[in-house]
Amino acid sequence: MNFRAVLAVSAAFCAVLAQAQYQDYSRMGKTPAELRFIEDPMEVELKEPSWLWHSPKKDTPAEQLAYAAALEREGKPEKAAEAYDDLVHEWHATPEALTAQLALARIWSSLGEAQKAYDADIYLLAHFNGRFVLEPVLKDAVAQADLLTAREQGRTFSTTSRKALRENYERIIHFAPRWPRVPELLLRIALLYAQQGEYASAITVCDRILVDWPNCAKTDEAVRAYCQACRNQANTWANDVGRLRHLEGLIAGARTFRPGHPDVALFDTWRREIYEMRRAKSYAQAVFYDNPAAYSAEAAQLAYQAFLREFPDAPQAPAVRARLAELSLARNTPAAEPGTAPKESK
């Protein structure tokens, strides 16, 4: 096969792979680029027959289902769960498999096995969707995800990453994108991002809530999480005047979007703090150019004038004006205020 043929085959393979990923994400009506906070396709492996690990004790799915149910009635839930699971592996396409998987989720939930119960619920959503009443399974999946999150956050040394906890909610959204509780789950994801210090991602997720569900029950909480993430992100971007200005604008926009929010005073405080950070950085940048060994007096003048244009009432403004007068005298040029043209020297 020549080089062009290899290239054509590779391109075709990449196109098929990209289309497969798009179809997978398209259940939510979005492309992968629009779901930056969901990183994986969320595939759930299909249970298949295995002569070594999942050998049913009975010869038919009906007999195996009756056998598992009898174990459950006898007070042997773990053995019953194993029997139900064997049934699903061996006879996945039968009506009994759905009954067994539902029973599996119920047993693990009743035993407090949050991870196993959650996995059983997600398996139902991935491989049996449309064949059972959705609401109870979704509610149980959220309850198990919440329990896993609470357990990990209560531990001094967590064994589960924030990413794994986020994915618990992301999977539910992935398989039930139009469920009315999706904004609530997105908020959980945003808060987990914030706890990990990934404030930019938290802002992205909160922004999606406010754009797609502007009047949901969690709007006020999302606005607060959004503004708080902006304030915290400012600490990371403290040396970037442009990004600080952008964060100010985001908080101002949220403030306008929800003027009656109970925390508007706090939002104004956060915005003011970012403004002061930007002002201090802008002043430091202007002073940086006031270095005769490295820059001309004209460069210092321009930097100070730009500062006054942006912050005419800053605490540093009197000192800046005084320094501008000194530089103008040294250069024999008028100390023009920002925004006015300097007069020609006679």
Given the helix and strand composition, which structural class is it?
Answer: mainly alpha
Question: What composes the largest sheet?
Answer: none
Unreliable spans are 3-39, 340-346
Kindly state the number of beta strands. 0
Radius of gyration: 30 Å
Distance, first to last CA: 82 Å
| Average residue-wise pLDDT | 86
What are the secondary-structure elements, in order, as H or E?
Answer: HHHHHHHHHHHHHH
Dominant shape: elongated
Percent helix, as a range, is 55-70%
Question: How are the SSEs placed, and which strands pair?
Answer:
Blueprint (H helix, E strand, L loop, with lengths): L2 H23 L35 H13 L3 H14 L4 H16 L3 H14 L6 H20 L8 H14 L6 H14 L3 H14 L6 H18 L4 H17 L6 H26 L7 H14 L6 H15 L15
Helix pairs in contact: 2-3, 2-4, 3-4, 4-5, 5-6, 5-7, 6-7, 7-8, 8-9, 8-10, 9-10, 10-11, 10-12, 11-12, 12-13, 13-14
What does this structure look like?
The chain has 346 residues and is mostly helical. It has helices spanning 3-25, 61-73, 77-90, 95-110, 114-127, 134-153, 162-175, 182-195, 199-212, 219-236, 241-257, 264-289, 297-310, 317-331. Helix 13 (297-310) runs antiparallel to helix 14. 32% of the residues are buried.
Summarize this structure as a short list of keywords or feature phrases.
346 residues, disordered C terminus, mainly alpha
Question: Briefly, what is this?
Answer:
By secondary structure, the protein is mainly α. The chain is built from 14 helices and no strands. Helix 10 packs parallel to helix 12.
